[in-house]
Write a structure and sequence with these properties.
With about 170 residues, the protein is an alpha+beta fold. Helix content is about 40%, strand content about 25%. The chain has 5 helices and 9 strands. Strand 7 and strand 8 form a beta hairpin. Helix 3 runs antiparallel to helix 4.
Length: about 170
Amino acid sequence: MIGRVARSIVLAATLSIVVAGCVTTTPSERETTMDHVEAKAELATLLEAAQNAIGGEWEGSDTGARACGLPGGDEGAAYGLNRRGAGVEQAQQQAVIDAIVAAWADNDVDAVVTTKPEVNDVVVTQLRYPASGVEADGFYAEVWISWRASSVSGQTRCASGDAAEINAS
């Protein structure tokens, strides 16, 4: 009796994992044919939406292309995009966060919102996709907001392109 119940539970769990894997796709699985220009535009769209919601002047420190590995062993290119801006008053932070979450959702990116512990009277809220780490193709995007300063950053997907040629042009 216990053997049949255990087999049924294992079978049900296995089926739910298989079904979940079939119906869940991440942006990286949907975007397997992107070139480096499209990958950079994809991330820039997310970061610019956050910058627009936060407002103010921004200082950029984006990187050039760097070499990365594509599926199948080919070499591709990826970029790091980083910008720093003004803080957001505590009273306006939730509206800004809601605007960023909505803008990212419009681009099929589900932001995970986390509030960090207070340090020296500063509470930082982070919006991030994925929740931690990076996707298999290297993609991530994040926003940090406090009353003192804000930042937006991320890394593009590893996409087709030659980093040395891109940086030389």
